[in-house]
Q: What sequence folds into this?
């Protein structure tokens, strides 16, 4: 039982980090597109 709990804790930590990373990337790309819209429209 302890092993499963430990594994779940580890997994949830990884998921949280992953979600934070995704959000950061999304925000970064969104601001980049907002700054330079003409470059992305031409692609």
A:
């Amino acid at each position: 039982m302890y092993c499963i709990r430990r594994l779940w804790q580890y997994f949830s930590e990884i998921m949280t980090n992953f979600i934070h990373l995704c959000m950061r990337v999304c925000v970064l790309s969104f601001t980049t597109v907002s700054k330079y819209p003409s470059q992305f429209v031409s692609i």
Q: What stands out?
A: The chain has a mean pLDDT of 86.
